[in-house]
Specification:
It holds the Pfam family Baseplate_J_M. The chain is an alpha+beta fold and 347 residues long. Helices cover 33% and strands 28% of the residues. It is built from eight helices and 14 strands. It has a six-stranded antiparallel barrel with strand order 1-6-4-3-7-8. The protein has a three-stranded mixed sheet with strand order 9-10-11, with helices on one face. A three-stranded mixed sheet has the order 13-12-14, covered by helices on one side. The longest helix is centred in the N-terminal third of the chain and has 26 residues, at 32-57.
Length: 347
């Protein structure tokens, strides 16, 4: 049973009772002894609160954010400060020209990306250009099809085609950071367990989820698929994959053939018609939440989708296709179901 500290009134009563026992005085609230008892009781209650506060900060599970940095130093688990999204776009020009490093692209919604290197374009020959976000954050992960140049040079097409832009993450949430430290404390000494491997990969900034597949490429192999932090989670960039591979090699490279890889996105194209008072936006968000939460190699279950939609103010729903969908899952490919096209119609 936890130690019960006394409240102010109980502490004051104990003090006044002691005075009565020793002096026989009747102590009123406005008497000298009563006023002194109030002061002493306040000090004692404050000391109790201080001890409770100190006890709270001693443990990772209850410590306030400033004291988590002290635990992080002890456990060697620094807080992730976020990462910049990176990727590539395809640019075209009708003349030979140079795009200097640092040239800006935008989505027209106050998000900017910059080119990483000087790029030389030949007339009418598309070229893939590496870019990185101008700021840290998951908002710079881009799932659209095109970006626009800011002040494009003469001859340069103002619109680029996005190949892929991801890998951006926000500063780590306090509770997610706390959970990583608790996991490290719980595991203790590294003993080559699957949980140890998962923790080591999650210590790489930007990683959201880790999926471990022993013997995927044969005996002695150990493959680790990762997703990038975001809502919903996304595929990792080549830079993040490289960072995870370095962490795996440092930890397990001497005893296992380890490899970090990205699951291959496979898209679900859904048409949904329904009747009821729920809005199309509510239904669309429900579908996106369900599919967005699917992990690599996990199947889409039609009945689950139907039940989630019907949990809204929906009387009837029809989904096309109306079958379960399993992603590719072989020794070469791990499929990951994502939303492709989504049409929601209210009858």
């Amino acid at each position: 049973m936890a130690f019960q500290t006394k409240k102010f009134a109980e502490i004051r009563e104990d003090i006044t009772q002691e005075i009565r026992n020793k002096t026989g005085l009747t102590i009123s609230n406005d008497s000298d002894a009563g006023i002194r008892a109030d002061g002493a009781a306040s000090v004692v209650e404050g000391l109790y609160h201080q001890q409770d506060y100190i006890q709270k900060q001693l443990f990772v599970a209850t410590a306030d954010e400033p004291f988590l940095y002290l635990h992080a130093e002890r456990l060697k688990t620094p807080r992730f400060g976020g990462s910049k999204a990176a990727g590539s776009v395809t640019a075209t020009s009708n003349i030979d020209l140079k795009i200097v490093a640092g040239s800006k692209l935008t989505d027209g919604k106050s998000h900017y990306w910059i080119t990483v290197y000087d790029e030389y374009l030949k007339a009418n020959r598309p070229k893939t250009i590496d870019i990185t976000a101008s700021q840290v954050g998951s908002s710079w992960n881009f799932d659209g099809s095109s970006l626009l140049w800011v002040s494009p040079a003469a001859g340069l097409s103002g619109q680029t085609t996005v190949v892929e832009i991801n890998g951006g993450s926000d500063e780590e949430e306090v509770e997610a950071w706390r959970e990583r430290m608790q996991e490290k404390e719980k595991l203790g000494t590294e003993r080559d367990r699957e949980a140890d491997l998962e923790r080591i990969v999650k210590d790489v900034a930007g990683v959201a989820d880790v999926f471990i597949y022993p013997k995927r490429r044969g005996l002695g192999s150990l493959d680790v698929a990762i997703t990038v932090a975001g809502n919903p989670p996304n595929s990792p960039s080549s830079a993040l994959l490289s960072a995870v591979q370095d962490a795996l090699d440092a930890y397990a490279g001497f005893w296992a053939d380890v490899r970090a890889y990205a699951a291959i996105k496979e898209y679900l194209n859904l048409k949904i018609s329904y009747s009821g008072t729920a809005s199309a936006t509510e239904v669309e968000q429900t579908v996106k939440d369900y599919v967005g939460a699917l992990i690599p190699a996990e199947s889409y279950i039609d009945s689950t989708m139907v039940s989630r939609i019907k949990s809204l103010a929906v009387t009837d729903v029809t989904i096309t296709p109306n079958t379960n969908v399993a992603p590719t899952n072989t020794n070469l490919v791990t499929g990951w179901l994502r939303i492709g096209t989504l049409e929601v119609t209210k009858l």
